[in-house]
Design a protein that fits this description.
Strands 1-2-3-4-5-6-7-8 form an 8-stranded mixed beta sheet. The protein has one domain: Aldolase class I (TIM Barrel, Alpha-Beta Barrel). Helix 4 links the parallel strand 4 and strand 5. Helix 6 runs parallel beside helix 7. By secondary structure, it is α/β, with parallel strands linked by helices.
């Protein structure tokens, strides 16, 4: 059906139908392999390490056609999708199927986001900017301008209003209340910020993180309040 497979990135994983990944929209979720970070708590290790066989785009198109009227959106996730040079072509192919497109990203490639112009954007901010060096995929990627890159992506989120969000998964050893305080000024003007609980029961890139105890509810609420008291709309998710 539809797209020239050579003109779009290889799809490494696929959730055919989701009612939770695109706010208010039933979606199909595509995963692109590889990442410029190595977050130890990443729950998509097989996607990050490209362990799965490719998914034909035609299969995606056929599924969407069969569920026309139900599936109205597509989510492109990873890994980190903005590392793929053909990401704009994938966005175009999905929009040609009549779908709204959401991108999940870590925001380190803001120029790609600007080209793709997604209908919805979810930006995962991992911790305060100075601590990103702890998470880099040093074998392939290292950024000396993390603050500039993330600030640019956060500005894109701000410009999209209700159609974008920032997510912060609060993982002990990676992010604490001091990091939230450092992020506060950058996040002023973002329409939606979510503090997400860390779930140690899921598969992770570094299995030793399964023994890391999540923050309790009181501490998560303190992190939320740190942002809320600064006038930032923030909720706890999960």
């Amino acid at each position: 059906m539809c797209a020239d497979e050579s003109q779009i990135p290889v799809i490494s994983g696929w959730t055919k139908t989701s009612f939770i990944d695109y706010p208010g929209t039933a979606s199909t979720v595509l995963f692109l392999s590889g990442c410029n970070l190595r977050c130890p708590y990443c729950h998509n290790p097989g996607i990050v390490l490209n362990d799965y066989p490719p998914v034909p785009f035609d299969a995606v198109g056929d599924h969407v056609a069969k569920r026309k009227g139900v599936i109205r959106g597509a989510v492109i996730s990873g890994g980190e999708p903005t590392l793929h040079s053909r990401l704009p072509d994938l966005c175009g192919a999905l929009k040609a199927l009549g779908l709204k497109v959401k991108i999940d990203t870590n925001g380190l490639e803001p120029d790609v986001l600007a080209v793709c112009r997604p209908d919805y954007l979810a930006l995962d901010v991992k911790t305060s900017f100075d601590k990103y060096n702890l998470l880099m995929n040093a074998a392939k990627h290292h950024y000396n301008d993390v603050k500039e890159r993330l600030s640019e992506s956060i500005n894109i989120v701000k410009s999209m209003g209700e159609n974008a969000e920032i997510r912060i998964t609060v993982v002990p050893t990676i992010v604490d209340r001091a990091d939230i305080e450092l992020l506060r000024e950058e996040l002023r003007g973002v329409n939606k910020v979510f503090i997400q609980h860390f779930n140690p029961s899921r598969p992770m890139l570094n299995p030793t993180y399964s023994s890391v105890k999540p923050y309790d509810t009181d501490e998560s609420e303190r992190m939320r309040d740190t942002l809320s008291k600064a006038g930032i709309s923030c909720e706890i998710r999960g």
